[in-house]
Amino acid sequence: MVQGKLLDDGALVSRCLSWDHGAWETFLARHGGFVRAEARRQLLRYVGRAETADVEDACQEVLALLMKDGARTLRQFRRESSLPTWLAHVVRSVCRQISRHERAAGFAPREIVYLPPSEEDLPTEGLAEALSRLPARDQRLLRLFFTEGRKYREISADLGISINSVGPLLARAVAAARRSLGR
After folding, report:
1. Dist. CA 97–CA 75, nearest whole Å
2. Helices and strands of the chain, counted as H and E runs
3. What pLDDT is recorded for position 161?
4. CA 61 – CA 38 distance, rounded (Å)
5. pLDDT, greater one: 110 or 87
6. What secondary structure does DSSP assign to 48-83, as a single string?
7. Sign of the alpha-carbon torsion through 64, 65, 67, 70
8. Would you say residue 4 has pLDDT above 60?
9. Cβ atoms within 10 Å of 18's Cβ, excluding its own
10. How far is CA 140 from the centre of its chain?
11. pLDDT(114) > 70
12. Quick one: CA dihedral 71, 65, 78, 20, positive or negative?
């Protein structure tokens, strides 16, 4: 059965290389979902996010790469592994390139959803009393961020929460402290 699948995929690739339009449709129907899922997984690995638009862009990059220069990349499929295994390698390569381009262009990772609060958000008058009324986790969170100057990644590891939770929790803790101060 596995050998038959390899031959089927090999024959499909051969038909794609001859620019058979129906073959490309079959290729996409058979492997498009896998390419999409692998792109999502690799973007999470290399870029730290996998938004729908990013996944679709990566999929388009993969398909364009397969067809570029007379299907040069697709011609490299030698049937030494299954087509999905080989495609996973291509997708991983494309996602690594996307990651390098984003770093080179200076894109900040989208792990910080909320802007960090500043100390001006918390007036000093009566602050100690206001903080003492907060839950222990909020007190610790504010201490780690403001007093110890920890980064979101360090705070998430220390508190055992996701990085994406740090910003919203900080914003809520600051808002609770301000409410406690009557401001």
Report:
1. 21
2. 8, 0
3. 84
4. 13
5. 87
6. S---HHHHHHHHHHHHHHHHHHHHTTGGG--SSS-H
7. positive
8. no
9. 9
10. 28
11. no
12. negative
Query: What SS3 state is found at 111?
Result: coil
Nearest to 163 by CA among 111, 116, 103: 111
Please state, in angstroms and rounded to a whole number, the distance separating the CA atoms of residues 173 and 176: 5
Share of the chain above pLDDT 70, in %: 83
Over residues 19-77, the pLDDT tens digits come to 888 888 899 999 999 999 999 999 888 888 888 888 998 999 998 899 888 889 999 99
The sign one gets for the Cα dihedral 107, 109, 114, 120 is negative
- Predicted confidence at residue 13, as pLDDT, reads 93
DSSP state of 120: G
Between 114 and 87, the more confident residue is 87
Q: How far apart are CA 67 and CA 16, in angstroms?
A: 9
The pTM (predicted TM-score) of the whole model is 0.54
| Angle value at C-alpha 110, between 105 and 116, nearest 5 degrees | 115
Token pair recorded at residue 112: 């910080």
Which residue shows structure tokens 């999929």?
59
CA 97, 102, 106, 110 dihedral sign is: negative
